[in-house]
Write a structure and sequence with these properties.
- There is one protein chain.
- This protein is mostly helical and 125 residues long.
- The protein has one domain.
- Helices cover 79% and strands 0% of the residues.
- It is built from six helices and no strands.
- It is elongated, with a radius of gyration of 18 Å.
- Pfam families: DUF2784.
């Protein structure tokens, strides 16, 4: 039971990290200090997508699932609703390249907006 809860917690952490990589720039808009965490997260997310390497969180989740006696992701709310978001069946190398481009584009737009907003604010004062 404890291993399964741990695996579910790692899955939620994984989803949170993916969302942070994609939209963390919005946290930077709120508190600039988040940039010190967000930029390395972007680099890691793009690296994983472009190289096809598995994320260490995937390793830990699968290890905990095996220790819990599970072989797959059947049963349960988390497995049913969240796993397809993180591990879609259609995921391939070309799709991973597109995902990496989306991560870069979204973050370039967010950071461009932040720079524009900052420059506009500094010229008005």
């Amino acid at each position: 039971m404890l291993y399964r809860v741990g695996a579910d917690a790692v899955l939620l952490l994984h989803l949170g990290f993916i969302l942070f990589v994609l939209f963390g720039g919005l946290l930077v808009a709120w508190k600039r200090g988040f940039v010190l965490l967000h930029i390395p997260a972007i680099v890691w997310g793009v690296f994983v997508e472009l190289t096809g390497r598995p994320c260490p969180l995937t390793y830990w989740e699968n290890l905990l699932r095996r220790l819990a006696g599970d072989e797959g992701y059947e049963a349960g709310f988390i497995e049913h609703y969240l796993l397809p978001l993180i591990y879609p069946a259609w995921l391939s190398i070309p799709v991973q390249y597109v995902l990496a481009a989306i991560v870069l584009l979204v973050n370039l737009l967010i950071y461009g907006w932040l720079l524009w907003r900052r420059r506009r604010h500094s010229t008005t004062h």
